[in-house]
Amino acid sequence: MKLVLLSGGSGKRLWPLSNDSRSKQFLKVLENKDGQLESMVQRVWGQLKSVGLADSAVIATSKAQLDMMQSQLGNEAPLILEPERRDTFPAIALATVYLYSAKGVVMDEVIAILPVDPYVEDRFFRRVQDLEDVLVSSGANLALIGVTPTYPSSRYGYIIPETDQIGNSVANVSHFKEKPSEEQAKELMNQQALWNCGVFAFKLGYLLSLLTEKGFPIQYEELLEQYKKLPKISFDYEVVEKANHIVVLPYNGYWKDLGTWNTLTEEMATEVIGKGIISDDSVNTHLINELDIPVTVLGLSNVVVAASPDGILVTEKNSSPRIKELVADFDQRPMYEERRWGWYRVLDYTRFAEGCEVLTKRIGISAGKNLSYQLHFKRSEVWTIISGEGEFALNGEICLVKSGDVLRIPAGAKHAIKAITDLQFIEVQTGSELIEEDIVRLYITWDEVEAHCQASKLSHREIAASRE
């Protein structure tokens, strides 16, 4: 069996900590067994390794999440990159075709799909392994896992088994009900309906035949080229609701979707993350602060206070799911991102009437990591090193830099930097279009940079002095 983990979403439900680049699965707010903070994706990947499934797993994600994924999991997790976000059907189709044409997986292989961020016990993933036998023995098109409900939730979808099979370990699926009212949920529980946790399996050949019927290629490179032509629709609507034979495997154990602030804070090991204080008379209140200034919460119960460079949220816990509706139209660049080399935080952005833009960032590069050798046509940059030491490449020369150095990079200049120790600098960009598209990456690794540049034993200051 092969596992495909889906990592997508725009990150609006856990605003302001999550954004288009840092979705909920990347927030480091959970505590691992060593007492260190980890994200949902780190937790799930660790669980897959503990039950022996990591070697069979790939993660389908968008280009926008590539650096974040590599920052948190390193290079040990195989990634399938979607050219753009187009919902779950295109993502699953691309992953399945990749396994077939790029990895040589055979038609009879069982493919299991699951979200990258469920909050579950390790035994949940052992239940996922049972899907293979269930699919083969039942002859079904699809095999799902359904969670036994613990309360009549109106936030989850429900899987309703056929009435004559209620109580069996595996049942045929009668129909589905998406997010019912609480009263409807109570009735569904009486019918022994199960929560739909988004985990299902099919034989690889089943989905490939569907793609062929729809006129799409089943070779990976060809499907990549036609990715925009795939319908922007969920797998549930495009495949599940049209399948002839679906079975469901019950799971009677702990499962939770940590997709809103009220559910996420229930699993946090501490009430305060970051600089801040909550008064003793504030009951069931959580503070998550990513800013460098302290936040104080006084006399507020059942509240979440979340602060990041993207904004500040103060909400009652029961009202927190509504945040997605309120911020849906916010149009601003992400103010904080994790990258494969470290992180950056936007300190200021100003657009002047005459069209000039100025963007100021604080950038951190981990020791041994580097920015790519690149150039820009529409902006110049000034870097001020504030801590650490590194090697700086500029137009074919490499020199040593350290705290206090000011590096001027004109438009069109080829440049890169590598951290010898953990390195931080302030970057001020000035130009007409401060966008990602104005980056031309020439070399990615530092070995490539060194191979094409002339190393100098002089420091940045000595080189500057010799040119005066």
Your description of this structure?
Strands 20-21-22-29-24-27 form a 6-stranded antiparallel sheet. The protein has a 5-stranded mixed barrel with strand order 8-11-9-10-12. A 4-stranded mixed sheet has the order 14-16-18-19. 37% of the residues are buried. By secondary structure, it is α/β, with parallel strands linked by helices. It folds into 3 domains: 256 residues, Alpha-Beta Complex (Spore Coat Polysaccharide Biosynthesis Protein SpsA, Chain A); 58 residues, no CATH class; 127 residues, Jelly Rolls (Sandwich), CATH 2.60.120.10. The radius of gyration is 25 Å and the shape is globular. The mean pLDDT is 90. Helices cover 22% and strands 35% of the residues. It contains 12 helices and 31 strands.
